[in-house]
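Incident log, structure service

09:12 report received: a user says their structure output differs between two submissions of the same chain.
09:20 pulled the input from the user's history:
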Amino acid sequence: MNNTELRGALSLATVYVLRMLGLFMVMPVLAVLALSYPDYSPLLVGLAIGGYGLTQAMLQIPMGLLSDRLGRKPVIILGLVLFALGSLVAAQADTLLWVVIGRIMQGAGAVAGAVMALAGDISRENQRPKVMAIIGIAIGFSFYLALLLGPLLAEKQGLAGIFGFTAVAALICIPLVLFVVPGAQNISPSGDTLPKLADVGRLLADKALLRLNISVALLHMLMTLMFVSLPKRLVSENWPLAEHWMLYLPVLLLSVFAMALLMRVSRQGRQKSMIYLSIILLASSMLAMAWQQAPLAALLVFCWLFFTGFNYLEANLPAMVSNLAPAGKKGSAMGAYASFQFFGAFAGGLVSGLLNQFSAGQFSYLFAALMCLLWLGLIRGLGSGSIHLKRYALSLDPRIQPIQDSLKQVSQMAGIRDITLVEDESVLYLKVDSREFNLQKARQQLGLVS
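09:34 re-ran on a clean worker, output below:
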């Protein structure tokens, strides 16, 4: 990567970490600290934990499209301002209802699409996967960091302190976006980075993509559902909130190690089997957590099973969506995927809140285990042939040869699985079998290399 790409990747990753920390840090503490609010109820706790997901899901695609009209940076800054305002509302809240409102306002700062589009704009085609990978790693890192920092900060500053930190972090990101993140003139092919409304409806009807979208919704529903109940369980085991990080740290480290083993097996052509195994791990952990008298050691083992399955699916589902999306429609497919992901977080908070409000606590875990069993049935029809698929976007030069001739020339090459030409962008989107397709030869035929 050149200096511009490296600076852009690291600065955008920092923006993502600071922003996602604010969303995630409340998850391991809110269920405990919410007891101090006068209007406390399990339902409001669930909505406070997952409420951000509703507005994130609703605005993810519109904010991405808006960035195509107004520019990436203005939309990102708008999203950060909305996020900071929501954080301040939650920080000043004297009732749990106002915390819920603040969380919903936080979610209105849905800038993930604009950030990814800007990352695409500032990177060359051959370096774009590296830039996206750095940002993706930052997202996962922010979740782990939030689980460790949330309880520590809550002990010293309370819930208001966490939301206050979140507001300040969002405001710090604004000069970072303005002065550190490189500017760009939308040089990336838009089909790879931004959703298009005309594509979304058709992609939602794609059975394979729909299975993956529902899968990520269920995955994040389970995550939110667990944190509605888990922190209180740990407190009941005589572990103060400030010391919960000591429990989370070894569980997370061991789960990353176990995930790496699953990834290694997956690369041996057993991806679908590892998906089944991960869902079974989630189901087992949810079913085991319904055991209310479980000792702390057993509870931590259940958490380890959960995070092992969660980490594997969180890392692999986006790649599968990217591979299965039609050529030139990756932006639309990932936009729909992100919307399902955030809606799942909201649904998890709502469902767990309702179940805890009107029934015994273990029913939320039993419900989650049932959803996992249905999930196993859902993915039975999911093909496993996408592991060797890769995607490329080739910018054509009409001065070398007519665009239609370029399309015909490349479409006859070995390994082509899907091809889309966007003439007004002079871009050829390819989905290919990496075992057969020769990218260098394609570029030579198009006159893109000397």
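09:41 both user submissions now match this output. Likely a transient worker issue. Closing.
09:42 reviewer note: The chain has a mean pLDDT of 85. The radius of gyration is 22 Å.
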